[in-house]
């Protein structure tokens, strides 16, 4: 009995610490893919929904203080990540990247969870800015990932970066588990989460030169007809 009670007391701080870490996770464009809460899709249910900042006491200070310029409209579909009280971290992808920030959870309606995708559903050429990932399903159910990443871009200004871009790359194979998959090449580890034609990607910052990262929300390239 005493042993059971001691074990319970020891596990409480760990759980509380995990919750606190999630509450303080960064909800910004660069930080969104690094959430450990998992990702899902939701539809906006109000006419106009502004994103809120995540610094200087936001989003707790409310929309009047924390409002960003970026917003989404009713029926737009957004990606959701970690929660903080009445707010949830959201990301809206667009052709130039996307916008991230806190929104009131009551203003979005979670979409039904899709069935686990087949390996072939991962196939495609995926892009986030200049970064790219090519995914190809194999006959044994695994998926091969080939990717290249750049900082600050693939073709930076020669005057600002005379040595050219910093480079990163990964070639590895992994087995999807539902909508998620992890691959590893040497010390480079990449985590992928598939949601239809969106792919949320994060890495351990060991996949290339200084500041190079695969972190981002990738869109599948459309096939030209």
Could you walk me through the main structural features you see in this protein, from its secondary elements to its overall organization?
- The protein is mostly beta strands and 225 residues long.
- It has two domains: 2-110, no CATH class; 119-220.
- 12% of the residues lie in helices and 44% in strands.
- The protein has two helices and 15 strands.
- The strands form three sheets. Strands 11-10-9-8-15-14-13-12 form an eight-stranded antiparallel β-sheet, with no helix packed on it. Strands 6-5-4-1-7 form a five-stranded antiparallel β-sheet, with no helix packed on it. A two-stranded antiparallel ribbon has the order 2-3.
- The longest helix has 22 residues, at 2-23.
- The protein starts with a helix and ends in a 5-residue tail after the last strand.
Describe the structure concisely for a colleague.
With 225 residues, the protein is mostly beta strands.
